[in-house]
Write a structure and sequence with these properties.
Two copies of one chain form a homodimer.
Chain A: E1 7-11, H1 18-28, E2 32-34, E3 38-39, E4 54-55, H2 58-66, E5 70-76, E6 79-84, H3 85-93, E7 97-101, H4 104-113, E8 118-123, H5 127-136, H6 142-156, E9 164-167, H7 171-186, H8 189-199
Parallel strand pairs in A: 1-7, 1-8, 2-7, 3-4, 8-9
Antiparallel strand pairs in A: 3-6, 5-6
């Protein structure tokens, strides 16, 4: 029986490890894909078009906006970034699953455009753990870490708007939890009933 | 972070293999338990109290009803059968998951008493497959098989009242799907948000 794929937005505060979790999931399972963003910024050395980003001119990017080809987009330091709709929908039609690792504002826009999107928020096991992960990067001043931590606390308040909250006590476990959520969603009655009725001639 | 367990009702038409799926799940995973029914019928040879059933006198059973100790109960061929509430709740409190393999009427009663119960309906991949499974038992007349099949079709119409529909194309896959559903449910925002707020001091 043909099972349709699903799309999930994965958000969470800076430092929580959502990037690592999503990469882990996509590397481990053939039917899970990380969405690739489009951007109008120039590729850096060793960045490949269609792998790290879809690189577009600003004009091409603006045309994608006009033609409603983006699930969400935003400007950052004078450049445009967004999520192309078509590749996501193609995976889903094939019965595969798509993960958008994206901040809360962008996630909300995706949900508005595609109401079936599953909203998953990743939280740290504790604030101490989050702080030590932010420190672990070892690249920032005490002042910057304090700021990030205070911003993370603000971001955490937004978890109430999400469908699921996943604790990241280990990358592998968190990845398995997100996978479970996405599998479960594809078997919701509203997603299955038409296919099942057809196949069983009811 | 402490994750609460969940309870699921697993129903489906006769012959669909729900018993095999549930047993597979409980045998494979330490934190998944099959609920054990109480009954007023006498134990058969090699049936063990607390393993196959909780064996009760009719008076004991009636007292359990009066004291609201059963999630559901029914009479069948002059004897009582029901699902004791306490062991289920104890597993859930410990962060374990409980599966009730139960027909639709009983399942509906459980959902009324415990609205957080997840309702999962198992369907065959096709009607031909269901028929061949019913025949495979090799113990029934053509007439009886026809009757069972026609009843199965009626039962299948009730899937629309369930939260999830799981296709049983293979026992292992169906068991994994049910496991995913139960894990996913425990990470729903409404089930997680209080614990997370507490642990993260928000």
């Amino acid at each position: 029986m043909k099972i349709k794929g699903v799309m999930a937005v994965v958000s969470g505060p800076s430092g929580v490890g959502k990037g690592t979790i999503c990469t882990c999931l996509a590397e481990k399972y053939d039917d899970f894909f990380l969405s690739i963003s489009a951007t109008s910024r120039s590729p850096r050395p060793n960045e490949i078009d269609g792998v790290h980003y879809y690189f577009k001119t600003q004009q091409e990017f603006d045309e994608m906006i006009e033609n409603d080809q983006l699930l969400e987009y935003a400007r950052y330091v004078g450049k445009s970034y967004g999520t192309p709709k078509k590749p996501c929908m193609e995976h889903i039609e094939k019965g595969e699953n798509v993960i958008l690792e994206i901040e809360v504002q962008g996630g909300t826009k995706v949900k508005e455009k595609e109401p079936n999107t599953i909203m998953i928020f990743v939280v740290p096991p504790s604030l101490e753990e989050l702080e030590s992960r932010l420190r672990g990067r070892g690249t920032e001043t005490e002042e910057a870490i304090k700021q990030r931590l205070s911003r993370a606390k603000e971001e955490l308040k937004l978890m109430k708007n999400y469908d699921y909250i996943v604790v990241n006590d280990s990358v592998e476990e968190a990845a398995e939890r997100i996978r479970s959520i996405m599998i479960a969603e594809s078997f919701k009655t509203e997603n299955m009933i038409n296919t099942v009725k057809e196949e069983l001639e009811l």
